[in-house]
Amino acid sequence: MSILPKHVSIVEVGARDGLQNENLVTTADKVHFINQLSQTGLKHIEAGAFVSPKWVPQMADSLSVMNQINRTSGITYSALTPNVKGFELALQAGADQVAIFGSASEGFSQHNINCSVSESLKRFEPVMELAEQYQIPVRGYLSCVANCPYDGATPPVKVAEVARELINLGCYEISLGDTIGTATPLRIAKMLESVNQHIPINQLAVHFHDTWGQALANIYQALTMGITVIDSSTSGLGGCPYADGASGNVATEDVLYLCNGLGIETGIDIDKVADAGWTICQQLGKLPSSKASLAIRARKIRDEQKRR
């Protein structure tokens, strides 16, 4: 049996990567959602994105959201910042950390940010210079690490090449994203092996979507290879506006249930996360896509009925 880590860190992306692909919710609802998540034991919450409101209107109020949340000591509140203007807004918002995003495939880079992979990396240089000046840690997102909706399969060597470029720019960690959720464990293993030849495993995270129902299997594969940082979204919120058919990120509740069953510590209360998910989903007029969240709610209803 493979050796599993004793502890993993969860990067909660529901308030950004989740809500940016859902119907618009009010600033007050976003603030309440993040405040609820802050009471669950999570240590990293991605709270907003400073991107063009023309392209991502759901994130237009990120400055207001981050200025209104009740910050809890020990929690990193981060934001996505694709350019200098975004970084400057993140500073105004008091972001503890920022993230930049690139693609391992040319087709996705062109459709997502209208430039080549090499051009996108060049654009990040002034952001990285400012981050160093203000001593703000920068995380790098890398999309399409298994397959691209435009180019097909992404060669693992290409993923490793772009990931290494992001590290060389100054990112402290690279989050490897299966953007369209088509990967299976063997593809993930080959990709991680390739990237790990150039980057230590403790500088890598995984960010898997669940379009084909493989996210948890892929996460388990990553755990067996030493990955200890997992991106997830409460209730499985989100998708990808530039990848048709891509369902939401893997649900935080489902990841927590998996880790709990494997004896891996997270320090996070799964019931409290589920409660936060139900609250925001009520505002969105939908049910959580998390199987664990639905099971928790069903259990609570049964318990209430027994007490009557």
From TrEMBL:
Transit peptide as UniProt keyword: no
Pyruvate carboxyltransferase domain boundaries: 8-274
Keywords linked to the UniProt accession: Lyase, Metal-binding
UniProt pathway: Metabolic intermediate metabolism; (S)-3-hydroxy-3-methylglutaryl-CoA degradation; acetoacetate from (S)-3-hydroxy-3-methylglutaryl-CoA: step 1/1
Molecular function per GO: hydroxymethylglutaryl-CoA lyase activity; metal ion binding
Matches recorded under CDD domains: DRE_TIM_HMGL
Domain of life: Bacteria
Assigned EC number: 4.1.3.4
InterPro entries the UniProt entry points to: Aldolase_TIM (IPR013785), HMGL (IPR043594), PYR_CT (IPR000891)
Any one of the GO BP annotations: ketone body biosynthetic process
Family membership noted in the UniProt record: Belongs to the HMG-CoA lyase family.
NCBIfam families per UniProt: PRK05692.1
Alphabetized PANTHER family for the sequence: HYDROXYMETHYLGLUTARYL-COA LYASE
Name this polypeptide is given: hydroxymethylglutaryl-CoA lyase
